[in-house]
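step 4 of 6: structure.
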Amino acid sequence: MSMELGADTAAVHMHSRTPTLEARGLVKTFGHVIGLAGVSLQLYPSEVLAIIGDNGAGKSTLIKCLSGALAPDAGEILLDGVKVNFKSPIEARQAGIETVFQTLAVAPALDIASNLYLGREVRRKGLLGTVLRSLDARGMRDDSRKHLQALGIGTIQDMTQKVETLSGGQRQAVAVARAARFGSKVIILDEPTAALGVRESGQVLQLIRELRSRQLPVILISHNMPQVFEVADRIHIQRLGRCAGVITPQSHSMEEAVAIMTGAVPGAVPGEDVAGGTANGQDQ
Amino acid sequence: MTAVIQPAGELQESVAPAARLQRLLHRHPALGPATVLVASCIVFSLINSRFLNPVNLSLIIQQVAVVGALAVGQTMIILTSGIDLSVGAAMILAQMVMAQTAANNGLPGPVALLLGIAVGAVTGFINGFLVTRVKLPPFIVTLGTLSIYTSIGLLYSNGQSVYSTAMPHLLTWTGKFVNIGSFQLTTGVLLMLALCAVASYALTRTAWGRHVYATGDDAEAARLSGIKTSRVLLSVYVAAGVIFGLAAWILIGRVGVASTNNAVNANLDSITAVVIGGTSLFGGRGAVLGTLFGALIVGVYQSGIALAGVQSLYQVLAEGVLVIAAVAIDQWIRKVRR
């Protein structure tokens, strides 16, 4: 079954620059189950790339490979054109790729500032910091406040509020803000609005636009078509472990995207003859 | 963009008193035990005016020193959502090593002391290793090492006690009285308070402390945040082991005899103090200060009920009620949302 379609020609020509993050022919299998059957992906500077696909299409496997949580069996990942080989999410993070996982990686009983700096705490200057290892709690609080305000998460005043006392959308905002605070190159968001109401989702989408305006490219994994079409510059469609096409909200309608995603209309995408976005070498 | 996060102050105005209390306790976990401690002292002093006598209060604090020190280590472990049932056995083993190597093998006091503390650290390392590397639940690990450390202590010491006269002064130094105003404390009490202060500092003011809380709160989230949770856990068990070694030193000074019959209820007493002190058995929530209050509450009930002329069994009963009440309150506090 060769459902895969080429990348949208317009989208490819729009970006003749080096992708910030690129995957070439990623393969990942789990025993007999094929997670990724040779997937390629390009993320260009200051763009929001959405990844959509049905359950089991390989979305999560793909971003786990990109964020270092899984090592691909074959294929390569390039960051700013340089080949990278992440052994853990920590390595990916050190390289500038921040991921907000679906299971929010926040500690509920710690406060907002502690969560923003979790794993990257800043010590005080002088002997207090070097000998007594004292944390610069005030500095981190002030910085957190400034950072959240800059991201438009506005009226936050109390950085000592525990994260578990926040609503779902607020927690998501904290998790995204943390990624934005330290992610120097790429932010990956895995289903950031899955558990949120309409208003809170809107706030997270606004946050994504804010990241883009700061030149940070974002990969957004989502089930929610209206949201994807609202915020994404390009849309990478996963189907059965392969890339079934890369479209833009301008080139295709939501119905067409769903049709490609479900395999109902494999040939409905123009530019099928262009092999640009899919370097599928492996057979299932 | 509209406000995603509202200031806490605005939220608090529109909530019922119960919810406000819940939120207050949620923010300050040591507040509950502090209130119980003060209220109990007032009640007991009304029943018998001798209760507030400095001599009596001094005695309470002295009695609490050993369990208080153990409970500091226990707090750190429970904060990681673990539990240590072997604390008393580890302490007795460390105590016997200190006393015997000094009295029978003629080691100088400081060397014997350090050896005993090292034994404590090793017991903690074994627990931590089994929890982090062999991936066994802390309850099972320490249930096993409880028996193991107890029997090693008995085998090593042959059931023989070592009396203070046979020990170097350093080992019994923790029993030395220190007068502060009209209160008579011991250096052991001061050592316990110092342990509280150091542990509290490490847990609240250092990155390590935040990693301990985060690991106990949600280990997976901590791992995804880049924290090496296994290393944090192991370090907690070893640090707690060192504290149990120091508790052994306090124990020798307090009792004056190094015996395997000392502090037989220490395992459960330390857990009682931690739980009454407001630290959650589910991890990630609590503080050493609360544990100190918890240990003092137990001491206050012992003394207060004795002075009230009530049968001492009621003290045990009261302790049980307190433990259950403390956990019930913890469950209630944990329900706080938004």
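step 5 of 6: annotate
 - DSSP finds 15 helices and four strands in chain B.
 - Chain B touches chain A through 35 residues (CB under 8 Å).
step 6 of 6: archive
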